Amino acid sequence: QVKWESTKNFEKATFTMDGQTMFAYYSQSGDLIAVIRNIISTQLPGNQLKSLKKNYNGYWITDLFEVTSDNDTVYYITVENPDYKIVLKSKNSCGWELYSKVTKI
After folding, report:
1. pTM for this one?
2. 30 vs 15, 20, 69, CA distance in Å?
3. Residue 78 in contact with residue 104, Cβ under 8 Å?
4. What is the CA 62 to chain-centroid distance, rounded?
5. How many alpha carbons lie under 13 Å from residue 81 in its C-beta half-sphere?
């Protein structure tokens, strides 16, 4: 079963594969843009998980997903502590880079 949603810029297909909900994004001309799935931290490549534990030990994970497109895999993770909400991005197992940081009030 696939649920389709249309927007001005893309088509989104929501489906389940192997018990996991996934999202596929297509251009209006039908070309695949990306496939996105939520994952858990143990599904991260070893280098990313090790770096995350080392550099963000006092934070908890509130969101983590994998984006696959054009043979590239990018991970986005949101980590929080009482003071900050940080989104990190990791491309091709090359460590984490800051995507955004918000100070909590």
Report:
1. 0.86
2. 17, 23, 14
3. no
4. 11
5. 8
